[in-house]
Design a protein that fits this description.
Layout lengths: L1 H19 L6 E8 L4 E3 L4 E5 L2 H10 L4 E7 L11 E6 L4 E3 L8 E8 L14 H7 L9 E2 L34 H10 L5 H5 L16 E7 L11 E7 L2 E2 L19 H13 L10 H9 L6 E4 L5 E5 L2 H4 L18 E2 L17 H13 L4 E4 L25 E14 L2 E10 L1
Antiparallel strand pairs: 1-7, 2-6, 3-5, 4-5, 4-7, 8-11, 9-10, 12-13, 13-14, 15-16, 16-17
Helix pairs in contact: 4-7
């Protein structure tokens, strides 16, 4: 009973906040029939209800701040009231995407909040059409979607580019592009207050966007072919508000908005795709490459588990120290992709390139790096190899995904597990 009361209180509080910042006239209820198949982006919070479908529809219409949609079987409509049932989806940023079908046996009613004028003409940039023409995985991308204008992307009351109090590393919702390496790196940067705003710093009126008029965003990245031991030149990528749709036109190709309606992730991802030469160019890569593009910092380290059961450290800037050009490219598949043995960072203990660490020794250094404010990530084996597909999606028994990159959010030693037991723990986030 206490749990139910707490859930009800949380829903009431959420409804009050959204209602205070929205207009009832901007809600639109859109019905779709489909064949039962759909794909989701994000994590759904469902309520399976036994009751009349009419009551469920009324609930969505009465409380769109809480419930984003209802779906149910066609034949349920002909059942007696006591035999009917339906599913409610709570509003938490989850996107349920299906292909409309006139003769489909499933019904879906979605509550959309059209925050921006759908009839505004977009002032097109000079780069988005190039992304569309180059396509992805051999398919041209025929259309775009604009958030908050009734296209089915971020049609929510909380719509914004960034929130003023900083971004959340868990704002990442990976789409259909194999760029977990990039999104994990972005998530790590979001841990630091002001870091994302700095990337968008040349965008006028940052906290007021998106506005009702056509929106343009300026993203500052770094040009890796110019990198040396001291950094590299920055470059400003100007993009319009259009986001690329999938080849079938059904939903976003790339990352989705956050659960609270923030748009900084898909626009930053779009800018990196432009900077790298297209969506295929960012399908597969390494976190260290992404951090160079996003921060301009040349000092990045890769730690690998060797056959001897020891961890060794590498970088790919050693040739610069020898007076050679970096040979890097903005696309992770192009340019120099080799690694050199490296000395260990002085933070945590240092050590020469010959030094190998056990897992316990590496963990101790990770704790020191966490305390010093280092950005860290990790990946399950089989990551990006030049010339091969980006990443597999097979889940391991422990819940981790083969070939997938993760953000390391926290490292804690000797965590009290109760009963006198302590644990060493690493907290990771998955895009």
């Amino acid at each position: 009973m206490q749990k139910l009361a707490e859930e009800a209180a949380a829903k009431a509080a959420k409804k009050a906040v959204i209602a205070a910042n929205s207009s009832q006239s901007k809600w639109e209820f859109r019905a779709t029939r489909y064949d039962g198949s759909y794909r989701g982006q994000g994590v759904a919070v469902r309520e399976e209800i036994t009751g009349t479908i009419a009551d469920g529809i009324a609930k969505v219409r009465a409380e769109p701040e809480i419930y984003q949609s209802i779906f149910y079987l066609d034949w349920s409509l002909s059942c007696s009231p006591g035999e009917q049932g339906y599913t409610l989806l709570q509003r938490n940023g989850y996107a349920m995407i299906m292909t409309p079908e006139d003769n489909g046996f499933m019904h879906h009613l979605a509550a959309l909040y059209i925050a921006l004028d759908a009839d505004v003409q977009c002032n097109n940039d000079t780069v988005t059409d190039g992304l569309l023409a180059r396509g992805y995985e051999g398919y041209a991308l025929p259309s775009t979607l604009r958030p908050g204008r009734g296209d089915g992307v971020a049609d929510v009351p909380e719509l914004k580019l960034v929130r003023p109090v900083g971004q959340d590393p868990n704002d990442i919702n990976q789409g259909g592009v194999g760029d977990c390496w990039l999104l994990a790196a972005i998530s790590a940067i979001a841990e630091f207050d002001g870091a994302i705003a700095k990337i968008f710093r040349k965008t006028p009126d940052l906290l007021a966007l998106p506005g009702n008029a056509s929106n343009t965003y300026i993203v500052t990245l770094y040009d890796l072919p110019t990198m040396d031991l001291y950094g590299c030149k920055s470059v400003d990528i100007e993009i319009d508000e259009r986001l690329c749709a999938r080849a079938d036109g059904n939903g976003l190709l790339g990352a989705g908005p956050s659960s609270t309606g923030e748009l900084w992730v898909p626009y930053l991802e779009k800018a990196v795709a432009v900077h790298s030469g297209g969506w295929d160019k960012i399908d597969g890569g390494h976190l260290t490459h992404a951090w160079r593009i996003l921060t301009g910092c040349p000092d990045q380290y890769t730690i690998r588990l060797e056959d001897a059961g020891l961890y060794r450290i590498y970088n790919n800037m050693e040739h610069c120290r020898r007076g050679e050009e970096a040979g890097l490219a903005n696309c992770p598949k192009d340019g120099f992709n080799g690694l050199w043995n490296s000395d260990w960072p002085q933070v945590g203990g240092g050590g020469g390139s010959h030094l190998g660490l056990s897992s316990d020794q590496l963990f101790e250094r990770m704790c020191a790096w966490e305390d010093a404010g280092y950005m860290m990530g990790c990946s399950m084996g089989g990551g990006y190899v030049p010339g091969e597909p980006g990443e597999s999606q097979g889940a391991e028994d422990n819940g981790l995904v083969d070939g997938h990159a993760y953000t390391v959010l926290d490292v804690c030693n000797d965590v009290d597990g109760g009963g006198g037991n302590t644990f060493d723990m690493v907290q990771v986030a998955m895009a």
